[in-house]
Amino acid sequence: METSDKLTSVVSAILKYAIILSIACIVIGTSLMFINGNANGIPISQLANYENPKNPSYNSSSFSPVLIPQGLAHFDALGFISLGLWVLIFTPVTVLLSSLVDYMYTRNKLYTILTFIVLFNLFAAIVIVPYFVTN
Amino acid sequence: MIDYGALTEFLLILAGGVAAGIIGSLTGLGGGSVLVPLLTLFYGVPIEYATGASLISTIATSAGSASTYTKKGIANIKIGVGLEVATTLGAIIGALTFEIVVTHNLQYILYLLFGVVILTSIIPTVKRGKYEYPEEKTLDFTSRIFQLSGKYYDEKSKKEVKYTGIRWWLGEIIMFFAGLLSGLLGIGSGALKVLGMDWAMNLPMKVTTTTSNFMIGITAATGSSIYWYAGYIQFFLASATAIGVLVGSRIGSALLLKISNKEIRWIFFTVLSFLGVDMIFKGITLSKIYNIPPFIGFGIAITFSIILVILLFIKLLISEGKYGNLR
Could you list the residue range(s) of the whole structural domain that residue A53 is in? Predict the structure, then answer.
């Protein structure tokens, strides 16, 4: 059994549009950052300071993905940049979900299970492991 | 009022990303392998943030190129997804190990390991592309169970190529380590992934490189989310490098098709080996085992990289002479 043509087209389209969406969000976010001179209330001069990784005010640990809708509603730079970065992180999840549907549809039990394991690993990396890292 | 200082800094990082993307694409090692040394050695970025930015850029480049290869039907999604069982697990363990290393202020280990990984990746990457199709080998039980067959249309030879992989289990073992390195060093581990599919699973080179490209995004995404919550994604850096590396890799791919003299790639291999040696020196200095003054380290790194690449080039020429017309 070979990979179905439909899956190939769907995966290719997901990858193509996800990258366009992601880069568009990042470009909008960085443009807003420079135009407004800040992001999420943090001055750009401090955002551009990457010398101290121990300072949590200016990196991802201080901006949970749940804050993205709020950031977008306020037309905030970090909201757009974070959305762009999370679109990138979620692209493989979407690809895997499409593969899972295809394998289930074609009744390919082995690859349904394997895809499910990979999805579980990604779920663990996105939800379970960070809980232990942050606590 | 636009902060021109910050804008200049952003553009400089973006330019670095473009350069990393071009070199990564021309050498076949990917932007991350160049971006991390570039940011840490020349921009003074802490390795924590450099690896975080690199992982994000890796997903962007992988998605960009994998879209084309999957559409052409060369990348084997099924084989890629199956092997991701091991790479995603490896990436989780790698990212957690990274967190432990950083919290214990053992960053020098990352520099040393990074240097070694770059230098050892150059050898299989240099040899890559010398042959298109693998030798025929006896199929094993995993060939049938894990459905390792596939086909693609080869535009160069104008024919349909059918193939069947072997030793799925060995591929999985190698992929676990590829994932581990990806999570630990913020790279795509393309060289190791290619080794897993080419040497271990006996798949054609085109299928290997394109499937590896497809897989890199999934592996990097696994590590990225852990990096996010641990606070290793710095927005300013990650935005500049994601755009820069993506643009650079596109330029690199276009250049690769246009460069008629393939020997020009050796210049980039020299750059890469220089970065590898310099990372090792930085690791040695940070470990306080021996303090190497930067300018001496720089000189030794340049000399060493030139010698290494010349030796590899000679070795390749000798092997070509021995095995006939391979290029």
Answer: 5-134
A49-72 pLDDT, tens digit per residue, is 887 766 655 788 888 888 899 999
Q: What is the pLDDT of residues A91-119, one digit of tens each?
A: 988 889 988 998 998 999 999 999 999 99
The string over B64-75, giving b where at least 16 C-beta atoms fall within 10 Å of a residue's C-beta and e elsewhere, is bbbbbbbbebbb
- pLDDT confidence tier of residue B82, bands split at 50, 70 and 90: very high
- For residues B218 and B165, give the distance between their C-alpha atoms in angstroms, rounded to a whole number: 21
| B82 contact residues in A (CB cutoff 8 A) | 111, 114
Please answer whether residues B182 and B94 qualify as being in contact, where contact means their C-beta atoms are separated by less than 8 angstroms. yes
Beta bridge partners of B172: none
- C-alpha separations of A14 from A11, A135, B241 in Å: 5, 34, 22
| Helix H or strand E encompassing B154 | strand B149-154
Paired with B164 in beta bridges are B149
The complex's ipTM? 0.90
Beta-strand runs (E) in chain A: 38-39, 42-43
Q: How far apart are CA B195 and CA B175, in angstroms?
A: 9
- The verdict on a CB contact (< 8 Å) between A30 and B7 is no
A98–B contact, CB cutoff 8 A? no
